[in-house]
Design a protein that fits this description.
It is a single chain. The mean pLDDT is 97. The strands form 2 sheets. Strands 3-2-1-4-5-8-9-10-11 form a 9-stranded mixed beta sheet, with helices on both faces. It has a two-stranded antiparallel ribbon with strand order 6-7. By secondary structure, it is an alpha/beta fold. The chain has helices at residues 24-33, 62-74, 91-103, 128-138, 148-154, 166-177, 223-236, 241-262, 276-282; strands at 9-19, 37-48, 58-60, 81-84, 109-112, 117-118, 121-122, 143-144, 183-189, 195-202, 207-214. A hairpin with a 5-residue loop joins β9 and β10 (195-202). The termini are close together. Bound molecules: 3-hydroxy-5-(hydroxymethyl)-2-methylisonicotinaldehyde. The site of 3-hydroxy-5-(hydroxymethyl)-2-methylisonicotinaldehyde has 14 residues, from β1 and α7.
Length: 286
């Protein structure tokens, strides 16, 4: 067993979708399981996520977010990382920016997952103006984790379906870093139909890295949130950007494989729970 150190603490700024594993219902268990305290700043409460399920309830918590921020500040809370994902309204872009300003220190990490689109399309709850606002929020981030569709929106350029070339991916990574973040992890990167993975870029080291696994048929809901949450868990456990990306790709792919083999409805999220012990081994916590 490892010696007990000061426990790290992160703030997770996402919606709570009661059913359909994504956002807070994956971020909190994954991050907690790796020994890091996860605090929730909920952006909205829904009965389910909005991806392919109709009839969901949607209560956005815009009015509560600044009071949360002020209360947490009054308690003098400190965060090792602030991690934002799905936001409940356009106004929340500014509120999350204020939240970052309130708790930013010289040593903590701001991770923005610019959750807003996939497969070439904005999620139907967002407008093109939201994408422009998200670009501004990304300027405050140390690390962003867009998929290819979100990257195109952040750069205000058309989405191109894959397979991609290394030259295209490397150009995207550089242009995304020019928005402000010093580290980029781009998801949904592939150079042939058999594989799928992520590309990383660090401005300070000028190193680009690729991780790929065999593609599993289908498109599974919530996997972007599982990936980004695991990436953060790796970083908080002192793994490098590239090591954390490898661990996150592996955990996400294993969770998809478990679900694929079980034949579960893809909209209902993936069985990450079955793979947590493997994640903890990869993180040298077991
Ligand atoms: O996984 C992204 C996500 C998070 N939260 C909600 C969503 C989606 C994607 O559709 O609808 C509510």
């Amino acid at each position: 067993m490892k010696s007990i150190k000061r426990q790290k603490r992160i703030a997770a700024v996402h919606d709570l979708s009661g059913f359909g594993k994504c956002s807070l219902t994956v971020a909190l268990p994954i991050i907690s399981a790796t020994g890091v305290e996860a605090c929730a700043l909920p952006t909205a409460v829904l009965s389910t996520h909005t991806g392919g399920i109709t009839g969901y309830t949607y209560r956005n918590l815009t009015e509560d977010m600044l009071p949360f921020t002020r209360h947490w500040k009054s308690l003098d809370l400190q965060f090792d990382a602030m991690y934002s994902g799905f936001l409940g309204s356009f106004a929340q872009l500014n509120i999350v920016s204020t939240f970052f300003d309130t708790f930013k220190t010289a040593n903590n990490l701001i991770l923005v997952d610019p959750v807003m689109a996939d497969n070439g399309e904005l999620y139907k709850v967002f407008t093109p103006e939201f994408a422009t606002g998200m670009r501004e929020l990304c300027k405050k981030a140390d690390l962003i984790v867009p998929n290819l569709t979100e990257a195109a929106l952040l750069l205000n350029e058309p989405y191109h379906p894959g397979p991609y070339t290394h030259a295209y991916i490397e150009e995207l990574l550089i242009r995304l870093s020019e928005l402000g973040p010093r580290q980029i992890v781009l998801t949904g990167v592939y150079f042939n139909e058999e594989e799928l993975g992520a590309a990383t870029f660090d401005v300070h080291t000028n190193v680009t890295d690729y991780v790929a696994v065999s593609r599993i048929p289908g498109s599974y809901h919530g996997t972007g949130d599982i990936f980004a949450s695991t990436l953060l868990a790796g970083l908080m456990n002192n793994f490098s950007l590239n090591e954390s990306t490898r661990i996150a790709v592996r955990f996400t792919a294993n969770s998809i494989m478990t679900t694929y083999l079980a034949g579960t409805d893809h909209r209902f999220g993936v069985n990450f729970e079955a793979n947590i012990s493997g994640l903890l081994k990869d993180l040298e916590l077991l």
